[in-house]
Amino acid sequence: MVPRFSANFQIAMPALLVSLMSLVILTAGCDSNNPSPTQIEPKTPSPSNATQETNSVSSIDQTFNRPNPSSELISPEDNLPEPESNLRFRTLDSGPDFAYKNGEEAGHVTMVETLGGGVALFDYNNDGHEDILLTGGGTFGDDKKEATQISGYPPALYQNNGDLTFTNVTQPAGIDRDDFYSHGAITQDYDNDGFTDLVITGYGGVLVFHNNGDGTFEQVAEQLNLPTNIWSVGAAWGDIDNDGILELYLAQYIDWSFANHPFCTGRDQSFLSQKKADDRRDICSPRDFAPLPDFLLKFNEHGTLIDISEQAGINKAGKGLGVLMADVDLDGDLDIYVTNDTVANFLWTNQGDGTFRETAALCGVGFDNTGNADGSMGIDMGDFNMDGLPDLFVTNFQNEQFALYKNIGNALFQHVSTASGLLSFQSVYVGWGTAFMDADRDGDEDLFIANGHVNLYPSDATIAQWPIALENIDSRYAKVNKSVGDYFTTAHKGRGIAYGDLDNDGDLDLVYSHINERCSVLINETANENQWLSLQLIGNPSNRAAVGSVVTLTTDKQFQVRQIKGGSSYASTNDSRVFFGIPQNQIIQSILIRWPDGTEQTVQSPQANTAQTIIQSTPSLSTSL
Amino acid sequence: MSRLLFISLLVVCILQPGCSSEPTVDELLQRGRNAIKGEDWESVREIKNQLAERKSAQIETQFLEANLYMNVLNYDAVMQRVGVIASDKRIREDCMMLAVHCFTAIQDMPSAMRTLEEIAVEFPNNVDTHRLLIANYYDFGALQQAMRHSERVSELVPEDPRPDRLMGLISKDFEKNELAITHYLESLQRAETDSTFDQVDEIRTELAEVYIRMRKYQEAEKQLQQLSPAATQSLQATAFAYRAECAMALGDFVEAEELVRQCIRKDPTLPDGQRILGLLAMQTGKPEDAKQALENAARLDPGNDRVFFQLSNVLRQLGETDAADAAYNKHQQIKTLKLEYIELNVQAAQQTDNARIRVRIASIAEQLGDYQAAVSWYRGALGIDPENEKALKGIRRVSASQQQ
Asked: Which residue, of A15, A260, A562, A607, has the greatest Cβ tally within 10 A?
């Protein structure tokens, strides 16, 4: 995320049209040899043709009687027509009544309050229904002079009752901790005991809640020796050395604190005309702060986590927000992709010997298509063109392209946003959480993005923004907001997003986290005759969560490839099951699973429209529904 | 009776305007001003001689003399007189402008700028002052000041489309897109009533570029389709290139290719044509074609870091690793130079008498292939230090390379 300032890499060259401009300006009524004073009364210039927009007023603004800074702006809406789409999502009224709070009402205008929080979909009690975990955020001390107190709000865990109603079980589950200002919700079974555990990231620490298996959690961050006093948003679990035990990658952001809290203005005063100068305090750019190092943590023989960053070659500091662990180069081990805000993204390519090499620039996934570092936030991996090679999608800041990196083989990627329809909508969006998911079960992966600005006084944009729904049509994306549902034609301060099958009806639903606005649960109601198949993989001896598995579904007409990823999106975790959508006229022939340890397992002719559990090394199929 | 008649006649003469036999000093001064404005130097001389005969008209006489000396480029004589008479409020503004032109003529730009700024403060409605300041600040890269004075001219001369065009250009270069649009549209509106303004096509093209950046393709198309048939080949080519970008972004690759080919036919030397052709080839999976086009673009625009970045990606796809590394390094080198260029521009605006900075800026511009800017900055350095060896060599070098 970044407001760009005048020292901008993208400027090819300020066009110094010296002779021409001087001649033009000087000869227009200016006689250099016979100067004569002109006495002209200034008149009112013609009215500006800039469009005017309005923004929805947040409840916080109303509560504190603060005029919405963007009240004169309307929600962004492309003028370009959208194709009709069958995609439909209904906002669930019975979803969790919970809002992430960022403490902006204290008026400190901090970097912390811009990042928002995430959402995790996981089955905490193994009852077969995906539950919802949302991080709580935080607040600041009231004292304007000594504003050093940064407090947290506890997360909220909502048990899915199986009927699309949810019960808040935060307290009985034992996770109502407010140790620090929180951001990310990362769920994974880190100890292979069959129960999904929880990591909460934030400003000032990390919490790890071990799932006791009885509906309760125990906080064990200190026991596990997690680093303290860090600022982390994105994190991911993955088995980088295929020993069956997960490692944890924690990305850190920037070195902001109240001791390092410069006064930044809303508009770039170093350049703009005096008439348009804006000296109101606004969010600073991440460029104003130093990067911080990330952590790669591994369990030792005592069951605590040790920092192996240095020995693993994780030796560059970034401004990390999103983390993805997946086999990006399809060489059988997990790589790590980190989205960095205003500096080049990282691709830590696993060398297979316990070390990593940073190869983002070489592989073509570090920058935009002109060589500039974007303000990158969210990340996901999918196969948008169904060629079997995993592609990467990164959400970026206003006036930057959301980056679709097409995998062209040999660990090389090409930035194809132009060709894939991602430039067909305006450049006002600041993108965060994102999801590759086959929402209409036609076999290809669509894209969903949460948007929302960070600035209080954004230039040429609104703070609350429409999310984006992109339907994949023959490997090209079309924005279909106007068809999909009310949520997508309403502006929000969106941040984290996670997908999962909340109602176990075989299609993927969405949950969005917002800043200071109730979260939204969107139930997929896309109606068609397409088929589906969902798989719950259980690894043994591979890590039980099967992170790193590559699953290929073959039909009589096509094949689809999915991976079980660690991390992805923004500060969020998706349903851990693998979902396939299959066009109605196709017959599923087989599923091939390449487990993290390299072994392969094939399931012939799995039944369509079922949810399956597949245990590693078990040749027969176990049907759970 | 005769005495009464004489007194009556005398009273009538006094009361009747224009009845006196001699013009006043102020009247002569005004006539002199009009003659100067009309470049009627014979009349100026005559009036000056008339004023010289009056003991109370020394200031006015010297003023007209100064103008006469200006006409024959005797700057010393001008400055001698101006220095004496400039405190007279009636002619102060004119004297200050004369001083500016003298300073400019002898390449004393710091003095010229200082004087212009003084005029702008004392006489804020002097349009010519603001215009000269705009031109000089633009030369020096002090774009914020150029913007400030452009705003003033825009207010003072609401029918003039030029200042808003310049503000649009500066805003565009600094990616202040909405601001650029506002100014460009204002300029176009004013141009409707200015038949002498011949930059409408340029504005439409630049405005289209901004719209494309904001992905407002329909607005961009609207502007490009309004280009006049008399637009230069280069502008027409640029319009085709931009339309190709719009088509590509909207997924019409066939149309995009046709448009970019038209661009190249119109102007094979336009870097944008080759660059977009390369981009199109990359997006449609034709790396060999992309390589050729991007290499052409790099030759045409050696200071474009983006082209080298894209070229490095394509070369890597083709397995030409060494060439890819070289192109990437070139991209990095250019970016570093550009950063330095921007930083030095800011310093130059603050240090109007620093020749060394200007020489360095010129050198960077030269390395980036912007020879026009290089010459401008070398000249700026010489304006401060006329004997500056590096600046003199730089100008000779650039001129020689341009002739090759």
From this structure: A562
Cα distance between residue A451 and residue A472, in whole Å: 19
The pLDDT value recorded for residue B74 is 94
Band of residue A613 on the pLDDT scale cut at 50, 70, 90? very high
Residue B14 confidence (pLDDT):
53
Tell how far CA A293 is from the center of its chain: 20
pTM for the model:
0.84
Among A25, A418, A422, which would you mutate to test the B interface (most chain B Cβ atoms within 10 Å of its Cβ)? A25
What's the pLDDT score for residue A153? 97
Q: Is any Cβ of chain B less than 8 angstroms from the Cβ of A571?
A: no
CA distance A553 to A441: 13
Q: Kindly determine whether residue A45 and residue B154, on different chains, have CB atoms separated by under 8 Å.
A: yes
- SS3 at position B187: helix
CB < 8 Å to B176, chain A? 268, 271-272, 459
CB B211 within 8 A of CB B223: yes
Predicted local distance difference test score (pLDDT) of residue A65: 34
Q: Touching check for A27 and chain B: CB below 8 Å?
A: no
Task: For residue A537, give every residue at least 6 positions away whose Cβ sits within 8 Å of its Cβ, in sequence order, or none.
Answer: A546, A549, A551, A564, A578, A593, A613, A614, A616
- The verdict on A259 touching B (C-beta cutoff 8 Å) is no
Would you say A185 and A571 are in contact if contact means Cβ atoms under 8 Å apart? yes
Contacts of B355 (CB under 8 A, 6+ apart): B380, B381, B382, B384, B385, B388, B391
What residues contact residue A562 under an 8 Å CB cut-off, 6+ apart? A382, A383, A550, A551, A553, A578, A579, A580
- Whole-angstrom Cα distance, residue A471 to residue A447? 7
Residue B173's pLDDT is 80
Token digits of residue B333? 């080198």
Segments of B255-332 assigned E as strands: none
Q: Average pLDDT for residues A286-293, to the nearest whole number?
A: 96
Q: Are A532 and A580 in contact (CB under 8 A)?
A: yes
ipTM: 0.81
Contact A25 B131 (CB under 8 A): yes
How far apart CA A510 and CA B51 sit, in angstroms, is: 90
Angle of helix A18-27 relative to helix B371-384, nearest 10 degrees? 70
- What tens digit of pLDDT does each residue of A186-199 get? 999 999 999 999 99
pLDDT (0 to 100) of residue B10: 56
Q: What is the DSSP letter of A185?
A: E
Instruction: State whether B218 and A80 contact (CB < 8 Å).
Output: yes
Q: Which amino acid is at A297?
A: L
pLDDT band for position B323 (cuts 50, 70, 90): very high
- The residue type found at A599 is T
Position A362 scores a pLDDT of 94
Residue B26 to chain A, least CA–CA distance (Å)? 16
Q: How high is the mean pLDDT of chain B?
A: 89
Q: How far from each other are the two terminal CA atoms of chain B, in whole angstroms?
A: 94
Any bridge partners for residue A119, and if so which? A134
Compute CA distances B104 → A31, B100, B101, B116, B128, whole Å: 14, 6, 5, 11, 14
Whether residues B248 and A273 touch (CB distance < 8 A) is answered with: no
Question: Dihedral of the CA atoms B349, B352, B358, B361 (nearest 10)?
Answer: 0
- Quick check: helix, strand or coil at residue A191? coil
Q: How far apart are CA A251 and CA A254, in angstroms?
A: 10
The DSSP 8-state label assigned to residue B78 in this structure reads: H
Residues found in chain B: 404
Question: Of residues A266 and B111, which shows the higher confidence score?
Answer: B111
